[in-house]
Batch of 3 targets.
Target 1
Amino acid sequence: MTITLNHTIVPTYDKVASAKFYARIFGFEYIGEFSHFIVVRVNDTLCLDFSIKDTFESHHYAFKVTEDKFDEIFLRIKNEKIKYGSGPYDAENMTINHNNGGRGVYFRDENKHLLEMLTADYKIT
């Protein structure tokens, strides 16, 4: 059996609002309450478990998507007037990147987590 990431905890100030944001922007399935978490399903093997924390550092979450999904999600980002950018240090320059022959964009959620959407894997040498 291949090892897969099953779930990860996303710290947040408002777990319901955050889960609904990810479901709305990315099209993830909103599952709802499980224990003290609010859960969204990313795909068949991965869930994000949102948990309230008083303080936390910003995290980075990167999602690889198809070209068609990129268009759908990017349209939702623009429709919600979310600032976006071409890199992790340029997350609000209102441009996308074309790294590794694909497209990529960075933006922040309401908890200041840095989100990345990309269509091509990084070329690691």
Note: The mean pLDDT is 97.
Target 2
Amino acid sequence: MFKIGIIGDKDSIMGFKATGMDAFYGEDKAQIEALIDRLAYEQYAVLFMTEKAFEMATEKVAEFDNHMTPAIIPVPGISGNTGIGMNSVRRSVEKAVGADIFFDD
């Protein structure tokens, strides 16, 4: 059975536990990369990551770009939106559609 999890700093991810997601605390690049590998092995279909965690582990995230699972999705953390999540969605849509269909502000 596939699962959904979130990786990031404690303050940003604890609220997600109320939604039924498994929350995993990662403080540095090595911890976050190890969590991604472990959770992929444990059949997590979707991994949400705070933008800060996502940014720390961009090389590891890229290893899963061509895999069906886990889908790794950046979300804003408690400190706010850095734009990484939207840029990731934009790249994914452009890859799927063949063009950037988002309007710039």
Note: Strands lie at 3-8, 22-25, 44-50, 71-75.
Target 3
Amino acid sequence: MKIINLGEWHKVCYILLQPKKGEEGMDRIIEKKKWPLKKIIWFSLGGSFVIFVLANIIFADRSTKLNVRSERISIEEVVQDYFQDYISITGTVDPIRTVYLDAMEGGRVEDIILEEGTMVEKGDIILKLSNTNLHLDILNREANLAEQMNNLRNTRIMMEQRKLDLKEQILELDYLIQQQRKTYLNNESLFEKNFISREDYDDSRDHYEYLINRNELLIESQKQDSLFRKVQIEQLEDSVQRMQDNLGIVRNKLEHLNVKAPISGELASVNAEIGQAISTGTRLGQINDLTSFKIIADIDEHYISRIKKNLLGEFEFANKTYKLKVTKIYTVVRNGRFSVDMVFTEDIPSNMRIGQTFRVKLELGDPKEAILIPKGGFYQTTGGQWIFVVNEAGDTAVKRNIRLGSMNPKYYEVLEGLEPGEKVIISSYDNFGNVDKLILKK
């Protein structure tokens, strides 16, 4: 059947409207003709076809599609449940405290008493050193101390002798004053009676006053000499005390040639050989305090702002859960990671060994109700910004923008874009390319 186009239709209408021959100029009533049913049907079909084509042009699905087999992808349901904000980290067992053995005095290694791996008690001698120069230094200091103590002794003797001499002088002068006083008083009486001359009287008086002044001067000299000797002795005593203290320190250095255990524990290492020359400050080994343990864990720097002291953690060992608490944070980041120390808050495993590793579940916050989707490979491609959502029939999956929040080793927290009950593809999107819709084939 030939379809009449718009130009032909105009032409037909023009022919039909022309007056018949012999009727020009005459007025007559033209009877309106009805369209045949067949023509109406054909025009309706043509219009429907045009509308269909236009609708396909305007509303056609231009999204890119990809056929995917359902068994090659992972589809999970979006759920609403309590979200526990935690991370899973690897922790290594360390002793609660490590004490290092450093040489407090240099010397030559004479003997190694205890080997590494031995359990030691505080004060046990681990190794012995020798130092000839230190022994000579002690002998010289002892000689200087003896000389200084001898000077102090001589000064004390001289002071006592000087004190006795002054007492003797004062005693003798007191006697002379008494004798001269008698003479002076006697001459005074005789002078008043004119039995002696005035010159004799003045001489006796002057001599008496001289002796008195001399006595006062001698007493003052005795006081000053006593003060001087006292200061001198105090200085000598201080000097002797300092020399004794210094000698004690040097003797302690001699004692440090015996390297002893500062705490009880396990002698983890001994870094010395017999005959080796050791300088002051050289590390000779370490002792581990095994009264308790701690867990040292490395954490990705992404979490450094969320890790705080007293955060709780736990791990499974021998079918039992053990609780931990963060006590120290090492904020220095190396190779994208930082470290924390965690100690046990309750029981400690009895058969734990240093260097053993555990998977620790470290809580970052309290549980909260949230919309969750399981973790999957899709995140590496989308960065959590979009995901493929499967329709109810399960035959297609369409890309949809979403917004994720916190995550733990099992789930992502969904903030926007998904509702509980919907199904999403969580496996890797590496083979999907940049398509908008997946056609799921069984």
Note: The longest helix spans residues 132-192.
